[in-house]
Amino acid sequence: MQVSVENTGGLERRVTVEIPEAEIQQKVDSRLQEMTKQVKIKGFRPGRVPLSVVRQRYGKQVRLEVANETMQSSLQQAIRDQQLRLASTPRVAEAPEDVTRGDLKFSALVEVYPEIDKVDVASLEIEKPQAEVSEEDIDEMLNTLREQRKSWDQVERTPQAGDQVLFEYVGHTDEGRVPEQGHQRLGIIMGDTDFASLESAVSTMKTGDESEVELTFPDNFREQGLAGKTARVELKVTGVAESSMPEVNEEFIRSFGVEDGTEESLRAEIRANLERELNQATTSILKVRIIDALVNSMPDLEIPQSIVRQEAASLASRAASQQGREASAEESEAYMELAANRVRGGLLMGELARQNAMRVDPAKVRSAIETIAQTYEDPNEVIQLYYGNQQLVAQVENSVLEEQVVDWVLEHAKVSDNEMKFQEVISAAVSAGR
User: Fold this and answer.
1) Residue 172: exposed, middle, or buried by beta-carbon count in 10 A (0-12, 13-18, 19+)?
2) Distances in Å between the alpha carbon of 67 and those of 28, 106, 210, 431?
């Protein structure tokens, strides 16, 4: 087998493979000989069919099968021998003119990963968030828990800020009645919407009151027939309720699984959860900052366009899915730049791990899975679920390896502390989108 590799530009390579006729024919003869012991042909006893008869009947078919199999296996062997790190599936660029006779020659185009020089992180400047969970942060979370458990009581008065208002409505636009029949029902929290004119309209109404007003609806209003339009609206308030927050008593505390029912234990558990969240957010921010620093240090690094296109399509699909629809092929183009930066960053992070012989630490993988499991009611069941699913374990392994790369970079780069508050770190991690 003869192999040649041609650089056709960028990261694309043309791999040409030529296999001598004798090698192909030897495989064909061997397979035909084996078939004489297996095929059933009328007039011959099983296992005693002459080779010439088998060749006449099956020779062309076997030749095609052997040629196709040999093309696939020889291409894979050529890729291994040439030590090509493929970034895309090979595609045939030049097929053999005739596979039924003569030497077998074909070419395939592949895209490879770039050869990256030693990644030097010593000059990278990284700001590391420094924050602690304060008593005020615990107070805020405790108040959030109370908000989640608050109850609603009907009142016979006009609504105030924070009250819940339930109402029925019908809209009349130039296009007609919305809905066409009956009424739509809606509930709002006063002071918690972006629809100030609607809040103003119901602010003077009590349960059972009816009114007719003109409203201009927001573009994102849930009823498509009214979104972005001005309409004459018939309103009827069906309920006004005020909220009451639960007391932080033993019953409330035990409802969160705190067995001794004390506020001290609840606050300790809240602190542990917030510290875990802070650690995850800090790692996310550091990962983003390190990737940005690496990408900026190698702005001209060539990256496989096939992977960029896949990443752009994935980003477009995710965005469309959040809107309850499928992404079009054209939408991927808008994500190409973001996808390129993500791919470039991922390659550099992976290269750092490879160049420095980093391996996933099984103990850290176990710890990461246990951390995930602690957020569920039955941690042991979740741990078993993960270790019973290799795909889930692989996801955790990738995340752990990235964290190991982050830790390694922090040991070798120029790191300065960035004093922040707990909520600032959480918000920064959300904004980073990781």
Assistant:
1) middle
2) 9, 11, 82, 54
- Is residue 308 within a helix (H) or strand (E), and if so which, with residue range? helix 305-322
Distance between CA 340 and CA 300 in Å, rounded?
Answer: 12
CA distance 91 to 13: 11
Q: How far apart are CA 196 and CA 200, in angstroms?
A: 6
Query: CA separation (Å) from 57 to 50, 51, 54, 63, 102?
Result: 11, 10, 5, 12, 20
Q: What angle do the packed helices 263-297 and 135-148 form, to 10 degrees?
A: 110
Integer CA distances (angstroms), 43 to 34, 47, 126, in order = 19, 12, 82
Q: What is the DSSP string of 320-387?
A: HHHTTSPPPGGGGGGGHHHHHHHHHHHHHHHHHHHHTT----HHHHHHHHHHHHTTSS-HHHHHHHHH
| Radius of gyration for the alpha carbons in the chain, expressed in angstroms and rounded | 33
**pLDDT tens-place string over residues 199-222:** 999 999 999 999 999 999 999 898
Give pLDDT, residue 433. 64
Burial of residue 342 (number of CB atoms within 10 Å: 0-12, 13-18, 19+): buried
pTM above 0.90, yes or no: no
For helices 336-355 and 263-297, angle between their N-to-C axes, nearest 10 degrees: 100
Ranking 156-160, 303-307, 324-328, 410-414 by mean pLDDT, the lowest is 324-328
Do the Cβ atoms of 47 and 80 come closer than 8 Å? Answer: no
The Cβ-side half-sphere exposure at 277, using a 13 Å CA radius, reads: 19
Q: Is 111 helix (H, G, I), strand (E, B) or coil?
A: strand
Rounding to the nearest 10 degrees, give the CA dihedral for residues 242, 247, 251, 252.
70
Residue 327: Cβ within 10 Å count: 20
Q: Helix (H, G, I), strand (E, B), or coil: what is residue 240?
A: strand
Are the C-beta atoms of residues 166 and 237 closer than 8 Å to each other? yes
Characterize the bridge pairing of strands 414-419 and 125-130.
parallel
The pLDDT of residue 331 is 85
Predicted local confidence at residue 434, as pLDDT: 47
- Tell me which amino acid residue 270 is: I
**For residue 315, which amino acid is it?**
L
Q: What residue type is assigned to position 289 of the chain?
A: R
CA nearest to 108, candidates 81, 69, 78:
78
Position 7: which residue type? N
The Cα 250–Cα 261 span in angstroms is 5
- What is the percentage of the chain residues whose pLDDT exceeds 70? 100
